[in-house]
Amino acid sequence: MQTIILINQVQPTLLSSSLHQQQNTKSIQTEMDDLLNLQYLLKQFGYLRTAAWESIIHSCKKQHYMANGILELAPGATLYVTSGFVKQYACWHHSEPRISRIIMPGQFLFVPGGHRLIYAQALTPCTLFCWEEESIRRIHRQHPDLLQISNILHHIQEQQVVARQYIRDAPGVEKIELFDSIFPNVRSHLRKQELASYLSISVKHLMQLQKLLHSEQ
Asked: Which segments within the chain are labelled E, that is strand?
């Protein structure tokens, strides 16, 4: 609910207009910062031509989700998280879906094409850039040098999924410490059942480890 304080018959309009302009300016600056971060990330993995970058920007769609919102994952789409946390599940068919990956700001989600289903949910309010499969194909046809960057980013995504195994194999409290170091500020947004499942331990064991961690701190 929005609260408006009426000062007199003239000032509310001026105040509302000024606030709207400030919000628009902040929104534009945030989007510019997000694009610059993306550009910097891509440049780390290969030469990014100006024309290629312009194609990336022009075919990009921006999406906003509230916490617990289900992400729209069209087959073959590419998503880039600019803010917030996202949890990815393996498929729709689990009675109790297990998290396969946690996606942080500055990371990609490449949705498989065809009939291999996955789904993802916003852990917190989040913003994403999205490219449809046809847009990605067109960009690659026009700028073949981007394929190398794309392949590297796909490999990074695979390694992020593998990272879960390292956390699971860690002994005792180190599981949680390693989780927190890889996914800072995420643990408080996960339900106990989700976190325990991700760590491959029982909820009872998780609570014991968290209590022990708290006592050590």
From this structure: 61-65, 78-83, 86-89, 99-103, 108-110, 119-122, 126-131
- Structural tokens at position 13: 């309009």
pLDDT of residue 1: 34
Q: How far apart are the first and last CA of the chain?
A: 40
DSSP codes joined into one string, 148-182: HHHHHHHHHHHHHHHHHHHHHHS-TTHHHHHHHHH
Q: Are strands 86-89 and 119-122 parallel, antiparallel or unpaired?
A: antiparallel
**Signed CA dihedral, 34, 37, 42, 43: sign only:** positive
Question: Under a CB-based contact definition with an 8 Å cutoff, are residues 187 and 179 in contact?
Answer: yes
With beta carbons less than 8 A apart as the criterion, state whether 145 and 52 touch.
Answer: yes
CB 128 within 8 A of CB 160: no
CA distance 143 to 177: 42
Alpha carbons 137 and 128: distance in angstroms, whole number: 20
Is 210 in contact with 177 (CB distance < 8 Å)? no
Instruction: State pTM to two decimals.
Output: 0.83
Going from the first residue of the chain to its last (217 residues), give the mean pLDDT of each consecutive group of 10, the final group possibly shorter: 33 50 71 92 93 95 94 91 91 64 94 78 95 95 93 90 87 93 94 91 92 80
Residue 53 tokens read as 């970058």
Nearest to 153 by CA among 131, 134, 122, 127: 131
